[in-house]
């Protein structure tokens, strides 16, 4: 594997091969190897801007597969301002926030997706408000739970 990584440092023509190899490792459950390949890609000074964004995207997916949600979040946040990557990055962030029960952030991301034409998210937003209210109730914060429910009703 070190040979492949050394090749990348010398020849950026192998970028696609490295992306594919990293994806193969991830799909086989060898996430640590995928992370290593995609990190090396990202750090390569000779990448085009587009190639670097692809490496960021794949590294985010590697981190997701490894359960490193904070790192995955950082990667996908880098892509939300890039038109070609925006929807996919927001969908990945939404998945992270659902997995980590960060309902407020899930609501914010789902609302951004609705603005981008992903109307299916409207139903999920209602669900996220319910989850947020339940979370507040579990924290014995009934005032905040009532506020969340009231806020959602006013938004309709």
TrEMBL record:
Gene3D superfamilies: Tetratricopeptide repeat domain. This is Tetratricopeptide repeat protein. SUPFAM superfamilies: TPR-like. InterPro entries: TPR-like_helical_dom_sf, TPR_rpt. The lineage of its organism: Bacteria, Pseudomonadati, Pseudomonadota, Gammaproteobacteria, Enterobacterales. It comes from Salmonella enterica subsp. enterica serovar Daytona.
